[in-house]
Amino acid sequence: MHLHEQDFLMRQIQLLTQLLQQIIFKKNSNQYQEAVEEIQNALTKLTKDHPKAFHQLNFEETLELFSHNETFESELALAVADLLVEEGELLHEKSFERSQKSMAQALILYKKSLQAPNASVPLDISSKIDNLEKKVTEKKLEQINSTLN
Predict the structure, then answer these.
(1) Owning domain of residue 110
(2) pLDDT tens digits for the chain (149 residues)?
(3) Which of 39, 108, 121 is closest to 74 using CA atoms?
(4) How many domains does the chain divide into?
(5) Which of 23, 56, 106, 144 is the most exposed place for a label (fewest CB within 10 A)?
C-alpha cells in the first residue's frame, strides 16, 4: 500500500474513532436519535461510491467494501464494526430488523478481521464476537459462517 493510501486510511480510522466517542456520549445523554443519525451519516459517506446504502449490502458486499488490492482493511473494518454495534443497540427497540442487520454486519467484520493475516485486533474481540453471536438470529449466523467459509 502506498504511503498516501495508508495516510488516508489512518485518517478515516481516526475520524471513526472520534465519531464513536461522540456516539457513546450522545447515547449516554439519551440523545438516541442524534446518535443513530450520526452513525447513518458516517455509513453513507463510507458507501458514497457504491450503488447501495450500507444497510442494503449483503455480507459479501460488506466484506468487499473493506478489501483493497486483495487485502482486507481490518483496522477500518473494526472501527466500522464498533459503530454498527452501537447502531444495532440503539435500533433494537425501534427496528428489530435493522438492529439485526447492523449487528450481523458488525459480526462478519469482526470475524473476518480475526481471520486476516497480520491484523491488529482488540484483545476483547472474542468476547465481542461471542456477544453478537448471542444477539443475531440463527439464520443470520448461518449466513455469516457460510460467507466466511
Answers:
(1) 3-148
(2) 565 566 666 777 788 888 889 888 998 899 999 999 999 999 998 888 888 999 999 999 999 999 988 889 999 999 999 999 999 999 988 888 999 999 999 999 999 999 988 888 889 999 999 999 999 999 999 999 999 98
(3) 121
(4) 1
(5) 56
